[in-house]
Amino acid sequence: MTMANASNPFRGIRIGSASGAGLAGWQAETGRSPAVVHKHPVTYRCPLGHETTPVFADLAEEEIPEYWDCPRCGRAGSRRPGTQPGAVGPELYKSHLDYAKERRSPAEAEQVLAWALGQLRRSRGEEPAG
Ligand SMILES: [Zn+2]
């Protein structure tokens, strides 16, 4: 057992930034500059006619969700008028980390995940394995 914690490079990094800071945190962690991320606004309309336009960062067409929860009434809004979801599936409730994993290669996603787990263990006072 060594006493190298004093120079632990992870100290001082905010715990939980991956989930707490959302996309901005993810951009910071992945080194992506917001300046080079294309904003992609998509308008969704819920069954009650509320419109919401979340802005997705640099997503391909197939990566953009078909439905989006209405911030006013909580119903699922649709990108395409006339179509409504038959059921609310887990697809609607992906975390930012899930989106990040989809956007990165599996190897990169595992690195992000391992890093996040390490942060979690440190926050709980556990020593990382190895
Ligand atoms: Zn609504």
From TrEMBL:
Similarity field: Belongs to the RNA polymerase-binding protein RbpA family.
Complexes and interactors: Forms a complex with the RNAP catalytic core and with free principal sigma factors.
Matches recorded under PROSITE patterns: RUBREDOXIN
Record keywords: Metal-binding, Transcription, Transcription regulation, Zinc
Entries under Pfam families matching the protein: RbpA
Cofactor(s), names only, from the UniProt record: Zn(2+)
Top-rank lineage group of the source organism: Bacteria
Binding positions for Zn(2+) per the UniProt entry: 46, 50, 70, 73
High-level lineage: Bacteria, Bacillati, Actinomycetota, Actinomycetes, Micrococcales
Stored InterPro entries: RbpA_sf (IPR038638), RNApol-bd_RbpA (IPR025182), Rubredoxin_Fe_BS (IPR018527)
Entry annotated with the keyword ATP-binding: no
Gene: rbpA
The keyword Transcription regulation is assigned to this record: yes
Cofactor note (record): Bind 1 Zn(2+) per subunit.
Protein function: Binds to RNA polymerase (RNAP), stimulating transcription from principal, but not alternative sigma factor promoters.
Record GO biological process: positive regulation of DNA-templated transcription
GO molecular function, one term: zinc ion binding
Protein name: RNA polymerase-binding protein RbpA
